[in-house]
């Protein structure tokens, strides 16, 4: 039998095993059967016998077909405003990439500031940071926008994977990739799982995290991370050359080749700035973040920057809608029927009489480093975020500290392995960084980020009065 069939059989076996095992005390049969379907769906996300959207669609279909949930409950996730924000954000990214505005910003910064290897590393990070609020997929941003620039810069210095990777290519690839993890944690719209986290936080902890609150909470630890990570990699994994004024020449020529900003680029720039202003002032305007995003998409359609055909051809947006909407719907019902509260109570009992601080610290570490067995941030968040949030709150941990700490780690874990997130195989596949080096860099960066976000970050959140 082929690999996909074997993985599919494993998913079905897990579901049947849970389904027909005795129902734990304190749970209804409906809750237990729904958990069986949910667990199988999550395992399907991890093993991927079929694409994520197909796995989610099968999961919600079986849940309704087996009368475990009502059809309206199974499909409720697709009416969630967060899901439509995800779709809209993917379309933002499409406009950003299509017009070339992301490349223009990066090349301009390199032309201005990229005179040394360290400055070049910081310039790439700043470029990523600037475009991050409008690119909700770290794969699209890091792999689709930044990687081609980083790879072309390495070649401009004669740094090729087989001949001279350590000349500068290894350094700038490692820096660009590792810095994207804390950048992804800085904005709700900087990484797709963040939008899923907002939905889970609302469902499990009744905590509403706005775009502005997320950005404010993340700004201090985020800036510290992107200040320290490039310097750490520069010392730990140094490039052989330090003078990179040649990169400025390459960037200048690329800008000449691109010519003046097109009208489409100006539209995207206007949409980008307008969306940021409306997102960051939502507490005053009371305009929903999803409506802001849909307004931006509407402007792109009216102006012709995006056509309707391009929108319906954007597979990432609609695939994300199907699998995220499906899992959000199932998770919502799972909470409604009492499974998550039961799990939190049971799990907290296993923690003994430890105080909430020790329990939360243990959960944070387990959550972060369990990502070694995941190949997707979204799958990890879907599998563990809600449950860990519920357990910590049940143990008495502050709600915002727990919810946002887990949210940050959901992004920071992206740098651990060469398969940790969608952009990782792109960077690793370039051949500049050996697996041993990748894992070493990833581990040490994760420790640095953990200390910054959970240590310093928690103090910042306390100063803000968020917990």
Explained architecture:
By secondary structure, the chain is an all-alpha fold. It is built from 23 helices and no strands. The protein has helices at residues 3-19, 29-47, 52-65, 71-74, 81-99, 101-113, 117-131, 138-156, 169-184, 192-205, 211-236, 245-258, 263-280, 282-285, 289-303, 308-312, 315-336, 339-350, 356-369, 377-394, 399-412, 424-429, 435-463. Helix 21 (399-412) runs antiparallel to helix 23 (435-463). The chain is globular, with a radius of gyration of 22 Å. The termini are far apart.
The average pLDDT score comes to 88
Q: What's the helix-strand series? A: HHHHHHHHHHHHHHHHHHHHHHH
Task: Tell me the major beta sheet.
Answer: none
Poorly predicted runs: none
Structural class, judged by helices and strands?
mainly alpha
Number of helices: 23
Q: Assign an overall shape.
A: globular
Helix share of residues?
A: over 70%
Number of strands: 0
C-alpha Rg, in Å? 22 Å
User: What is the terminal separation in angstroms?
Assistant: 53 Å
The percentage of residues in β strands lies in under 5%
Topology of helices and strands:
Layout: H1 3-19, H2 29-47, H3 52-65, H4 71-74, H5 81-99, H6 101-113, H7 117-131, H8 138-156, H9 169-184, H10 192-205, H11 211-236, H12 245-258, H13 263-280, H14 282-285, H15 289-303, H16 308-312, H17 315-336, H18 339-350, H19 356-369, H20 377-394, H21 399-412, H22 424-429, H23 435-463
Helix pairs in contact: 1-2, 2-3, 2-17, 2-20, 3-17, 5-10, 5-13, 5-15, 5-17, 6-7, 6-12, 7-8, 7-9, 7-11, 8-9, 9-11, 10-17, 10-20, 10-21, 11-23, 13-15, 18-20, 19-20, 19-21, 20-21, 21-23
């Amino acid at each position: 039998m082929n690999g996909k069939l074997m993985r599919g059989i494993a998913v079905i076996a897990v579901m049947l095993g849970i389904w027909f095992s005795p129902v734990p005390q304190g749970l209804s049969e409906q809750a237990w059967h729904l958990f069986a379907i949910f667990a199988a769906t999550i395992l399907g996300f991890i093993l991927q016998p079929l694409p994520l959207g197909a796995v989610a669609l099968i999961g919600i279909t079986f849940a309704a077909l087996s009368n475990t949930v009502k059809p309206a409950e199974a499909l409720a996730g697709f009416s969630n405003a967060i899901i439509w924000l995800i779709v809209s954000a993917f379309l933002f990214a499409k406009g950003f990439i299509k017009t070339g505005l992301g490349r223009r910003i990066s090349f301009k910064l390199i032309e201005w500031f990229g005179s040394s290897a360290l400055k070049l590393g910081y310039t790439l990070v700043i470029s990523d940071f600037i475009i991050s609020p409008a690119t909700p997929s770290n794969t699209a941003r890091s792999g689709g926008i930044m990687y081609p620039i980083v790879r072309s810069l390495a070649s401009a210095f004669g740094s090729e994977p087989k001949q001279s990777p350590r000349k500068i290519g290894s350094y700038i690839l490692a820096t660009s990739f590792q810095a994207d993890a804390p950048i992804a944690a800085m904005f709700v719209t900087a990484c797709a799982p963040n939008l899923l986290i907002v939905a889970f936080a609302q469902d499990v902890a009744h905590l509403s995290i706005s775009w502005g609150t997320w950005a404010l909470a993340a700004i201090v630890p985020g800036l510290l991370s992107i200040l320290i990570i490039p310097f750490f990699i520069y010392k730990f994994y140094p490039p052989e050359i330090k003078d990179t004024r040649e990169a400025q020449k390459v960037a200048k020529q690329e800008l000449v080749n691109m010519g003046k900003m097109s009208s489409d680029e100006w539209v995207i720039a206007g949409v980008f700035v307008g969306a940021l202003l409306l997102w960051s002032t939502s507490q005053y305007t009371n305009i929903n973040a999803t409506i802001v995003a849909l307004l931006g998409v509407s402007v792109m359609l009216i102006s012709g920057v995006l056509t309707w055909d391009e929108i319906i051809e954007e597979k990432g947006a609609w695939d994300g809608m199907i699998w995220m909407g499906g899992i959000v719907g199932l998770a919502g019902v799972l909470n409604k029927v009492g499974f998550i509260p039961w799990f939190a109570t049971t799990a907290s009992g296993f923690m003994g009489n430890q105080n909430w601080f020790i329990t939360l610290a243990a959960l944070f570490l387990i959550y972060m480093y369990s990502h070694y067995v995941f190949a997707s941030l979204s799958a990890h968040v879907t599998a563990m975020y809600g449950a860990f949030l519920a357990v910590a709150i049940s143990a008495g941990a502050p709600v915002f500290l727990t919810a946002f700490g887990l949210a940050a780690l959901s992004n920071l874990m992206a740098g651990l392995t060469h398969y940790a997130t969608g952009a990782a195989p792109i960077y690793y596949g370039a051949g500049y960084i050996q697996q041993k080096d990748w894992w070493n860099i990833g581990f040490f960066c994760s420790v640095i980020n953990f200390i910054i976000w959970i240590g310093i970050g928690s103090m910042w959140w306390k100063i803000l009065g968020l917990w």
